[in-house]
Design brief:
single chain; mainly alpha; Serine Threonine Protein Phosphatase 5, Tetratricopeptide repeat; about 80% helix
């Protein structure tokens, strides 16, 4: 950027990098600078709309997307801008307008699974069950592992009393989200209505087990958080090695706590064990890709 300060494309790319580090204010400034240099850079209009939308400025985000759509015309690339415009309308509870944008997105890119899935969801909210089923079937065909599309299809068929189709789609959803309680509960109801009582009983037992695990996880999480807090206080006092032991104990109780893992990783780095720290930081980013502290630490 220093070599080519008037390159709109470079400012746009730099803004994208800043956005990946969750430096949203700086990213916004770069996208705005890119558009000052080249108002016809549609990609920067789209990128700026994303940053502005994250700040809750939906009207401004929509305006940038409208500019991008006007610039891209009827090219397949415009499908993404239409998809995002639908998201903005949806956030503003403008269901009809959201549906219109999603229909444009799938007309420009018929293989756009995410747009078909969202279109099905929006049509469902609009009480257009037949249209919702049609869109969700397209989404499920394009991406059978889309658990949300499969679940919504199951819900719609449940409403229509088509129990065999309910079972088909909810089982597919469950294969990709095996611990989703809503899917388990509705599938249990559908199995009971078709007389498959033994299978329904098995799901009932799974639901009870998940509830027990949830209660246990809450108890474990409380203890792990207390250990993590003790580690933070020790680190503030300058005893990093003692803090490391507390973070390790918190992780032993709750290995899924990425906040504990981040503190553990940073403490490893501060003690000079950088390779071990890198492994832990990558583990944090696998489950929380938007974690700016982990991204910055890994970059360093």
């Amino acid at each position: 950027m220093r070599l080519s300060p008037n390159s709109a494309q470079i400012h746009n790319e730099y803004g994208t990098v800043l956005g990946r580090f969750v430096e949203m204010k700086a990213a916004r400034e770069e996208f705005e600078r890119a558009l000052e240099l080249d108002p016809a850079l549609a990609e920067a209009q789209v990128n700026l709309s994303l940053v502005v939308a994250q700040a809750g400025e939906f009207v401004a985000a929509g305006e940038h997307l409208d500019h991008a759509i006007a610039l891209q015309g009827s090219s397949p690339k415009a499908a993404y801008a239409h998809y995002l415009r639908a998201k903005i309308w949806g956030a503003q509870e403008q269901i009809d307008k959201s549906i219109g944008e999603l229909q444009k997105a799938v007309s420009l890119n018929p293989g756009y699974e995410e747009a078909w899935s969202d279109l099905g969801g929006m049509r469902r909210l609009n009480l257009n069950n037949a249209g919702a089923i049609e869109a969700l079937q397209r989404a499920a065909t394009l991406k059978p592992e889309d658990a949300i599309a499969q679940y919504l299809l199951g819900q719609l068929y449940l409403h229509e009393g088509n129990a065999p189709r309910v079972v088909q789609h909810l089982k597919q959803a469950l294969s990709h989200a095996p611990d989703d309680r809503a899917t388990l509960y509705n599938l249990m109801l559908a199995l009971r209505s078709t007389g498959r009582l033994q299978e329904a009983k098995s799901l009932d037992a799974r639901l009870a087990k998940l509830q027990h695990q949830s209660d246990r996880a809450s108890e474990v999480g409380f203890k792990a958080s207390a250990l993590n807090d003790e580690g933070i206080q020790l680190e503030k006092a300058g005893t990093v090695r003692a803090a490391l032991a507390k973070y390790r104990a918190a992780l032993d109780l709750d290995p899924t706590g990425y906040g504990f893992r981040l503190n553990y990783a940073l403490a490893l780095c501060r003690l000079g064990r950088r390779q071990d720290g890198i492994v832990e930081l990558r583990g944090v980013l696998r489950v929380d890709p938007a974690n700016s502290d982990a991204a910055k630490a890994l970059y360093i």
